[in-house]
Amino acid sequence: MSESPIDVLDGYRLDAQLSNGELWLRYFELGGMSTGLELEAFLLGFLQPTIHDHDVIAHALNERFFEMGGNHPVPYLEDTERV
Amino acid sequence: MTDIGADRGFRLEASFLGFEAVLALHGEVDMSSASELRERLDWAIDQGHRFVVLDVGDLDFMDGSGLRVIGSAANRLLLSGGALTIRSPSPFFRRLLDIVRIGDLVRVERPIAATDDADTATDHRLPVKAVSAASTGLSGFLKRVAAVPSDDDVVNSALRLVVALAQATVGGADGVSISLRRHGVLATVAASDQTIMAMDAGQYETGEGPCVDASVQGRRFYADVLNTEARWPAFTPKALALGISSILSSPLEAGTTSIGALNIYSRTPAAFAVRDQHLASLFAREASVILSDARADVTDQEFDDRMGQALRTRELISQAQGVIMHRDGIGEDLAYTRLRRMSLEGGRLLRERAQEVVDAARHRADAADLLRELDHE
Lengths: 83, 377
Description:
heterodimer, A: 83 residues, mainly alpha, 0% strand, globular, B: 377 residues, alpha/beta, Transcription Regulator spoIIAA, Beta-Lactamase, Arc Repressor Mutant, subunit A, five-stranded antiparallel sheet, 49% helix
């Protein structure tokens, strides 16, 4: 999982102006299967998400940045592998 | 054994033995069949079956309204010292129960012949069997998951403080409580003493009383002289027996939804003057704010709408994933990644791209059907 420290995600969440609950709902909407508490633990680095879970969170954040007129700055982990 | 047919292939078989009722569900539980499920469950519980087993092994689909029914039945049974057991849930169903925090309220029983094969991670996204939840409820459970986390202890302390302040400030108040409706069931979340707890419980049991009415109707109910009170014939004698002579219940509200009541009890008849009634409303508003904050300021309706939308999108994405998995012969995670890349490259949201994929697949399927029909002719 290379050098991407997971709590970077929480920084993106703050930039995206999303509460934990709001991000969870978006993550859940995109197919995420972890609870709100687990998501928070991922964001803060207390739990390690699977690559897939990480990328669903990343995409939820990126869609939010996209809605705000921005690019999609959050990197995906899966992109470094096959596909 | 009864067999009840319904729309969209929902079927329910019930069998009863002593305290136990077993309801086997077949087909799909959606909003319309959920009400039937609720009626059957309520009926079974009303008949004294305190241990209810829901066999979901043959269930194809359950939406949010069905999950809500399960949650509220589980709550009812727990309150009456019984339990709800979910028999033979798929791994996805079990996970969903946990996500929406119903998992804590039910027992899960695996089928006798179950093997662990069913637990492989891949089956939970198969579109046909996917369990999704829609719009009618779940709020209590899901809100706890989705809400900005609030410390339950902080909330409880704040509510106890409101109770203590109301008792000290409202003239004539001998006891105060706060009732909150969770999953359709009223429960006391703060009370000044055991007598007051019993007063609340008396109203929940009989399903009547100022607390119940204020919670349901969202307006203030004042029973000024219980001796001559005729509105609540089952509950009033219980109150009188405990020495209570007047009760003032003010509604708690989250947004436009009534979520409970602040109840003030007195041993004195006609204890509450107009000023006291206004004070009671102020305290009720205070409690509402505390509870609303704990619920992240989302009303049931708003939350249900958002959740319903989220679940519809999930299902759509899951279907698109299924299409790509089938088309490209790949696993679900990879299919998800491809779908995500397609959406990024096209500058579209994932749900929009998923919709296109599903629509295109439908068109292809329609075209294939048409070709087959033409072949037959």
